[in-house]
Amino acid sequence: MRRIAGFIAAFVLTASFAWAGGETPANPDAEVYFINLEDGQTVSSPVRVKFGLRGMGVAPAGTEKEMTGHHHLFVNRAPFGEGEDGADELANGIPADENHIHFGGGQTETEIELPAGQHTLQLVLGDSGHVPHATPIVSEVITITVE
Fold first, then answer.
1. d(CA 64, CA 43)
2. Core-most of 10, 21, 30, 41, by most CB within 10 Å?
3. Beta strand extents in 76-127 (DSSP E only)
4. How many CA atoms lie within 13 A of 136 on its CB side?
5. pLDDT of res. 93
6. Would you say 86 and 100 are in contact if contact means Cβ atoms under 8 Å apart?
7. Residue 15 backbone dihedrals phi, psi, to 5 degrees
8. Is Signal a UniProt keyword of this protein (predicted)?
9. Hey, what domains does the chain have and what are their CATH numbers?
């Protein structure tokens, strides 16, 4: 019986760590979402992407103001916290590369060039230092098709 209880405790701790972000508090009711794109939508390139945020404010990277953050767009990669970069994103912040696009100026929309085919997109809110909040604010992963 102790082994089962120990296993359950380890599982719960591991599961909660998987979604633990940095140290910056967030509104647990905050939401980040795509304003103009829906899962399964067909679009043309360049793709205009508009970012929505409820329950918190947008501030440029480096700005330390409570209940704010800035957007990051994940393109064609595993959902936040999963895959090859998952643990690193949680511990060290969101990398900057072709699959992790930073909007540290406080931007709330962009246009991105994507080749024809299917692509996944996800929004992740980062704190002043590009680290996900203590309660990560992430959108659903959507798949779009570029014609």
1. 36
2. 21
3. 100-102, 109-112, 117-126
4. 26
5. 85
6. no
7. -65, -40
8. yes
9. 2-146 (2.60.40.10)
**Would you state the pLDDT for residue 79?**
94
The confidence score (pLDDT) of residue 87 equals: 73
CA dihedral 87, 92, 97, 101 (to 10 degrees): 100
Measured CA to CA, the distance from residue 94 to residue 90 in angstroms comes to 8
| Biggest alpha carbon–alpha carbon distance for the chain | 58
CB count within 10 Å of CB 139 equals: 22
**pTM above threshold 0.70:** yes
How does 63-91 read in b/e, with b if 16+ C-beta sit within 10 Å?
Answer: eeeeebbbbbbbbebeebbeeebeeebbe
Query: Could you tell me where the beta strands, DSSP code E, fall in 3-146?
Result: 31-34, 42-43, 47-54, 57-58, 68-75, 100-102, 109-112, 117-126, 142-146
- Cα separation of 56 and 68, whole Å? 6
**Torsion angle of C-alpha atoms 102, 103, 108, 109, degrees rounded to 10:** -60
Mean pLDDT by 10 residues, the chain (147 residues): 36 36 88 98 98 98 95 96 77 88 97 98 96 94 98
Distance of CA 87 to the CA centre of its chain: 13
